[in-house]
């Protein structure tokens, strides 16, 4: 029988769907509760069985509560759960249709570990399963240590405890060594007070790395293949992070959030972040070789680097904590990352002003994203010299070819992740597998901006579609021409490109 997951909500259909998705993994068993009364009955029944048979009954491994129901009942169910001693430490997730900063803040104030969208995505189900597993492992390990501590009476037992301590540290190194470099991990072991709840405000360099278009790519893959390719991607990125003293805070679906300068402060934190980002981009070549061998679509990654003050430390409860970073610098780094395209490393100008090592940049732009109080100048980094001496290798398939036939680009701007009904037209002049140069229609009046995403439908002079539903980001606007960087292409585009270049080679 799999781990018990309680799902609490008052919409029966949503509960059935949530139960189906959770149970589909085979490693979990969802138990739905449709009211506070149902939760109370379950807890009372467990207590009665324990009292009558002296048999200890397992608490759920994780609890998911519907935010809409909780808000309507003034969080009565959540309050009741938090008062139950035998549920202390059980991870609490909230699920909601739409998320806002205020909603997330409210959920976390009620003890939430994670806030998920509903219905659950594949990544959401993976998050539930991983957290439930981690909770059970921690709980079982704590029980084992308590039992052993009660029998440590003689020197022989003390020796055994020391051996177990070594084994525990070895296990911790195996698990957490994936997140911290060796010197950071040793610092944590030598100063266990760092494991207490709390933290401090300090200046950090934040990195966000994200696979471009992975959501649409993953729709054509089975859950096992999605997990396989993501695991290989993360495994390929971590060596560069740990080599340059980076600390992984969290995997966010197909993204990595990491910081430099914590838990150990560093005068070269930004240089380390830049060097790590360059090596991560170069390691994508290995990832795509793996994708080719296994028949997966090729992938690209965008990276953003920003620096500023943030809270860094352990947050949560004594039963379940997370090493986390909180602050506007994290939100701004996420906004910068949204402007990046595959193969890019973008860093804020303020960030680069703090470093000593020579850095080569190929371009810079000023961005004003939602949530930012003021524009931020960002630079595209190509290399860092000095003792780091590394650069981004030249990308393949990026030679622009002339187009000698009429190709109309119908472009639909994307604002706030919503595709607009307005069609902006232009003529394709040059393109590669990664970029396109488009001559704009002089009559167009729509306010196109650098960093804006567009959906593209292309047609020939006879009006027939050449390729459809590909996505790109505007990276340059100059003298009536747009330069687009493709963020997602499909078979129809590759077929069109192959025909054009095959004809030119003849």
TrEMBL record:
InterPro entries: A/G_cyclase, Adenylyl/Guanylyl_Cyclase_3/4, CheY-like_superfamily, Nucleotide_cyclase. Belongs to the adenylyl cyclase class-3 family. Residues 205-337 form the Guanylate cyclase domain. Pfam families: Guanylate_cyc. It comes from the Bacteria. It comes from Jutongia huaianensis. PANTHER family: ADENYLATE CYCLASE, TERMINAL-DIFFERENTIATION SPECIFIC (PTHR43081:SF1), ADENYLATE CYCLASE, TERMINAL-DIFFERENTIATION SPECIFIC-RELATED (PTHR43081). CDD domains: CHD. This is Adenylate/guanylate cyclase domain-containing response regulator.
